[in-house]
Amino acid sequence: MSKIYLVTGPPGVGKSTVVSKVVRRLKSAGVIVGGCTASEVRSGGARTGFGVTDLTSGRTGVLASVDSKFGPRVGRYRVNLSDLASVGAAGLEAAAADSELIVIDEVGPMELVSPDFRRAVRGCVASGKPILAVVHERLEDDLLAELRAAAEQVFPLTVENRDDAIDSLASVLLAAAGGPKV
Q1: C-alpha distances in Å from residue 66, one per residue of 42, 62, 63
Q2: Rounded distance, CA 34 to CA 94, Å?
Q3: pTM value?
Q4: C-alpha angle 98-79-27 in degrees, rounded to nearest 5
Q5: Which of 17, 20, 50, 105 has the fewest CB within 10 Å, making it most exposed?
């Protein structure tokens, strides 16, 4: 079973920013990082959706949008199950096979409506590779309960500790992934 490291905290505290900085540090140390990330899409200063990116291939897709007419509704967004499967879940499956560290940013309400994504997360856990995952602070779901129960360490972020968390996470994950490559 994988060693799982969770980043959690309130919305807007910088969870994804911290994870992206940690990923850059690990990649610069030679660690092969794979998985998927989600990012905000903005138009005219307003958030209109979220994108999803496969960290290995660089492929991107639409995770959710206010403009979509199809897909499960989560809040004011419609989730694009097709892109979530072909980019997000596929990125996780590739990471489970070929990476030294798996990043899942994030396991949240939009991602959890996808059976393919849920299956891919469970495949990552079964891979035995270390996992860095962002999870919602209060969201309840059986998959999140499994991740929390199996977590090696949980990093609760606040505005005050988020900068220090980058160093802590990078150090812990570098050791979990086998140390720097020379």
Answers
A1: 11, 11, 11
A2: 7
A3: 0.94
A4: 30
A5: 17
Residues 99 and 33 sit within 8 Å (Cβ to Cβ): yes
Q: How far apart are the first and last CA of the chain?
A: 27
User: DSSP label at 181?
Assistant: -
Superfamily designation of domain 4-176: P-loop containing nucleotide triphosphate hydrolases (3.40.50.300)
Nearest to 101 by CA among 79, 77, 133, 69: 133
| Percent of the chain residues topping a pLDDT of 90 | 92
What does 150-172 look like in DSSP terms, one character per residue?
Answer: HEEEEEE--TTTHHHHHHHHHHH
In the chain, domain spans: 4-176
CA separation (Å) from 50 to 9, 33, 70, 77? Answer: 19, 22, 15, 9
| 90-to-50, 76, 118, 171 alpha-carbon distances in Å | 17, 26, 11, 28
The three-state secondary structure class of 116 is helix
Reported as a single tens digit per residue, the pLDDT across 23-52 is 999 999 999 999 999 999 999 999 999 999
